Amino acid sequence: MKKLESYLGFDINLDDEGNVVINDMCEYPQLSKNCQTFYNKLELIKIDESKITFPIQLKEWVVTISSTDKKTIMEYFKIDGIKKVVEENKSKLIDKVTFVKGEIYYPKKSKYPKLAVHFYQVVEKQGFLVENPNDLIYYFEIFYDNPKQFTPKRIAELEKFVNTQELFQIPFLPVELVRFDKDNNIAPFQNHELAKSASELPF
Q1: How far is 81 from 35, CA to CA, in rounded Å?
Q2: How far is CA 194 from CA 15, 19, 22, 57, 123, in A?
Q3: Chain-centre distance for alpha carbon 81
Q4: Mean pLDDT, range 8-31, rounded to an integer
Q5: Is residue 6 pLDDT above 90, yes or no?
Q6: Which of 34, 160, 176, 186 could form a disulfide with 8 if both were Cys (CB 3.0 to 4.6 A apart)?
Q7: For range 192-200, the mean pLDDT
Q8: pTM, entire model
Q9: How large is the average pLDDT for residues 160-188?
Q10: Tens-place pLDDT, residues 140-149
Q11: How is the chain classified by DSSP, letter by letter?
């Protein structure tokens, strides 16, 4: 692994496959000014890659998965669970410009968390007006009320079923544009794939 120049105080390395690895990344963007700045830069990259032209109108909807049983937890409570929800809503996304972002949170007194997938779709009318990329970052922001929600007891309960290292990364995953191939299959989300590789643990 090759050490690169640090950025905003974060140690940055390049692995043998050419991927950037940050070992001391924040768990939530809101934890410090540097964390928020770094995260906003990731969001700006995603927005720039989308090639959308401002101003735009945007509508949002959220699909929430409650962890009601072991099967639901194992199927959805991981990074790929976000894409699974997106696949289930595919008919609403074809020929549309849509961004998605995952959220993982615990309702009060809950044994297990909920997975919320936020959909942000560009529309011609009856949406929220967004003037520029910085406004869009603000619109995309998910603020976590409790950055200490993954207590040792909750982690131990979840680790019976899933790799909690993946769940810890969801709050820092940037927004992703839904892209389709020529057969209308949803393409992998780049940052999701990188996060999965970074969180692989033996079970």
Answers
A1: 25
A2: 12, 8, 11, 30, 30
A3: 11
A4: 73
A5: no
A6: 34
A7: 80
A8: 0.90
A9: 95
A10: 999 999 999 9
A11: -EEEEEETTEEEEE-TTS-EEETT--SSGGG-HHHHHHHHHHHHHHHHHHT--SSEEEEEEEEEEE--SHHHHHHHSSHHHHHHHHHHTGGGTTTS-EEEEEEEE--TT-SS-EEEEEEEEEESSSSEEE-SHHHHHHHH----S-TT---HHHHHHHTTTS-HHHHHHGGGPPPEE--B-TTSPBPPPHHHHHHHHHT----
Q: What is the mean pLDDT of the chain?
A: 90
Residue 203 has pLDDT above 50, yes or no: no
Question: Going edge to edge, which strands form the sheet with 98-105?
Answer: 128-130, 56-66, 114-123, 98-105, 176-177
**Most confident segment among 5-9, 15-19, 104-108:** 104-108
Nearest to 180 by CA among 87, 80, 118: 87
Q: How many CA atoms lie less than 13 Å away from 22 in the CB half-sphere?
A: 17
* Pairing mode of beta strands 2-7, 98-105: unpaired
